[in-house]
Design goal:
CATH class of the largest domain: Alpha Beta
Number of strands: 21
CATH superfamily of the largest domain: tm_1862 like domain
Helix content: 25-40%
CATH architecture of the largest domain: Alpha-Beta Horseshoe
Structural class: alpha/beta
Shape: globular
Bound molecules: iron/sulfur cluster
Distance between the termini: 50 Å
Strand order of the largest sheet: 2-1-3-4-5-6
C-alpha cells in the first residue's frame, strides 16, 4: 500500500484544494498516512498570500531532510500558488523536491508522481477551463464542508499575489455546484461554506451569485450556508434580498475594506470609495439588522500619510466592525505595488498604526459582542468546548463563536454536533459569546 500525507498552508481555498488532492490520490489507490514519517508521498500545499510564505515552506521541507535520507523512495511535491507564482526561483531553493504542481494541474498528480523520468517535474500550465467539477473532495469528519464554486480572480488589486497563483476567474457550472452541495449535505455536512477568491463574481451564463445562492439555500437538510469572500464591488441589492429571504444563509458578511482613504483605495485598485463602502454596510444592516460585518484592513500601504491612516480609523469608527483581520503592508513579489510603488512607510510607523487599529477593533468587537447579551441565539453545535468539556461550542447564525452550558443533564445528552441549540447569551468577550442552553 502506498501512503500519502498533505501539509496545508494558507486560506480556506487551499484547505479545500487539499481535500480535492486527497480525493484524487485515494481514487488512485493511495492511503492517508497518520503523519509524514509513514508517508511515501508528501504533498505540501502552499499559499503565496502571506509574507515569507516561501521561507516557511523551505523551512518545513528542510525539516524533512532526515526522513528523505531514511526513505530513498519518498516523493515530495510542492503544490499550489507558490510554485505557480515563483516557478524555477522556488525550485532553486528546494533541490529535494520531485514535483512542482500548480492549482490547475491536480488531476495529473497520480500520473506525474508515478513518472520518475524527469527530476524535478514542473506542472504549471494554466488551464482556464479547469474547475474540477467532476471530482469529489475527501473531507475530514465533521459538520462543516467547503465547496469551491469558482477559482481565480480577474481583479487586479495592486498588492495581491493571488491572480499570479490562481489565474483568471472560472466558475463551476451551477448544476455541479448544486450537486456538490447536495452531496456534502447527504454525507452529513450540515454547514457549507462556498469558496472563491472573489466569490460574488460567480457567473455561469445568466446565473449570477445571488441566483446560485438562492438555489442552494433550498437544499433539504442544510442548516447553515455561508460564502467567502465577497468583494464589496459586487455585493448587489438582489444578493442582500436573497440573504434576507433565506434564514439558512448565515447573517454574516466578510467585507474587506483594506483602507479608508480614497487615495489609497485608488492606489490599491479596489474599485470603490470609502463612502460607497459605508453606504454598502448601511444597506446591508437595513436589509438584515442582525448581520455581523467583519473585514480586512491593511495599514502602511505605499504613500499612506497620517491623513490617509486617519480616514481608515474614521471608517472603522463609523462602521464598527464585528471583527477584523489587520495587517501591516509588506510587498508581495511580482505585484504592481512591489514593482512600481515605493514601500515608503517606515516599519515603526506601520507597527504603531497596526497596534492602534488592533486596539480600536478590540473595543468595537467587545461592543458588538456585548450587544448580544440578553438575546437568545440559534447556535449550530460543533462539539465540546476546548478546555471546558462540560460546555459546548458552536456558531451563531452571524458566525460569532459561542460557548455555552448545555442546561439540565438530560438535555445535555440530547444535543449533538450538527444540531441547533437555543442559547441565552449571558456574557461576552471580544471574541466569544457565553450562555446557557434554553428549551
Ligand atoms: S479581489 Fe483583489 S485582493 Fe481579492 S483575490 Fe482578487 S486581486 Fe486579490
Amino acid at each position: 500500500m502506498r501512503h500519502y500525507c498533505i501539509e496545508t498552508y494558507g486560506c480556506q481555498m487551499n484547505v479545500a484544494d487539499s481535500e480535492l488532492i486527497a480525493g484524487i490520490l485515494e481514487d488512485d489507490g493511495w492511503v492517508r498516512a497518520t503523519d509524514a514519517h509513514g508517508a511515501d508521498l508528501i504533498v505540501v500545499n502552499t499559499c503565496s498570500v502571506r509574507e515569507r510564505a516561501a521561507d516557511r515552506v523551505v523551512g518545513y521541507l528542510r525539516s524533512l531532510a532526515p526522513l528523505r535520507r531514511a526513505r530513498p523512495g519518498l516523493r515530495i511535491v510542492v503544490a499550489g500558488c507558490l510554485p505557480q507564482h515563483l516557478g524555477e526561483r522556488l525550485a532553486e531553493r528546494l533541490p529535494d523536491v520531485d514535483l512542482f504542481i500548480g492549482p490547475d494541474a491536480y488531476r495529473r498528480l497520480p500520473e506525474l508522481v508515478a513518472d520518475p523520468s524527469r527530476d524535478p517535474h514542473f506542472a504549471l500550465a494554466r488551464d482556464r477551463g479547469e474547475t474540477y467539477e467532476d471530482l469529489s473532495p475527501l473531507r475530514a469528519d465533521g459538520i462543516h464542508a467547503y465547496v469551491s464554486i469558482m477559482r481565480g480572480c480577474d481583479r487586479a488589486c495592486t498588492y495581491c499575489a493571488v491572480p499570479f497563483g490562481r489565474g483568471r476567474e472560472r466558475s463551476l457550472p451551477a448544476e455541479a455546484a448544486i450537486r456538490a452541495t447536495r452531496e456534502a449535505v447527504e454525507s452529513g455536512f450540515v454547514a457549507v461554506t462556498l469558496l472563491g477568491q472573489a466569490v460574488t463574481s460567480y457567473r455561469e451564463g445568466e446565473r449570477d451569485f445571488a441566483a446560485l445562492l438562492e438555489a442552494l439555500a433550498g437544499i433539504p437538510g442544510l442548516c447553515s450556508l455561508r460564502f467567502l469572500a465577497p468583494h464589496p464591488g459586487d455585493l448587489s441589492v438582489r444578493l442582500l434580498e436573497v440573504m434576507r429571504r433565506h434564514p439558512v444563509i448565515a447573517r454574516h458578511l466578510h467585507l474587506p475594506l483594506q483602507a479608508g482613504s480614497d487615495r489609497i483605495l485608488t492606489a490599491m485598485r479596489r474599485g470603490y470609495t470609502a463612502a460607497e463602502f459605508v453606504d454598502l454596510v448601511a444597506r446591508a444592516r437595513r436589509t438584515l439588522p442582525e448581520i455581523s460585518i467583519t473585514t480586512d484592513i491593511i495599514v502602511g500601504f505605499p504613500g499612506e500619510s497620517d491623513e490617509d491612516y486617519a480616514r481608515t480609523v474614521e471608517v472603522m469608527e463609523t462602521v464598527r466592525f464585528d471583527s477584523a483581520f489587520t495587517f501591516a503592508y509588506s510587498p508581495r513579489e511580482g505585484t504592481h505595488a512591489q514593482r512600481f510603488l515605493a514601500d515608503d512607510v517606515p516599519p515603526e510607523v506601520k507597527q504603531h498604526r497596526l497596534s492602534a487599529v488592533i486596539t480600536l477593533q478590540e473595543r468595537h468587537s467587545l461592543e458588538r459582542y456585548q450587544a448580544r447579551i440578553g438575546t437568545t441565539q440559534e447556535v449550530l453545535v460543533e462539539g465540546p468546548a476546548r478546555g471546558t468539556p462540560d460546555r459546548l461550542f458552536g456558531r451563531c447564525s452571524d458566525m460569532k463563536a459561542a460557548v455555552f452550558s448545555p442546561g439540565e443533564a438530560e438535555e445535555a445528552e440530547e444535543i449533538r454536533a450538527g444540531e441547533i441549540a437555543r442559547v441565552e447569551i449571558t456574557a461576552a468577550s471580544s471574541h466569544t459569546l457565553k450562555g446557557v442552553r434554553r428549551r
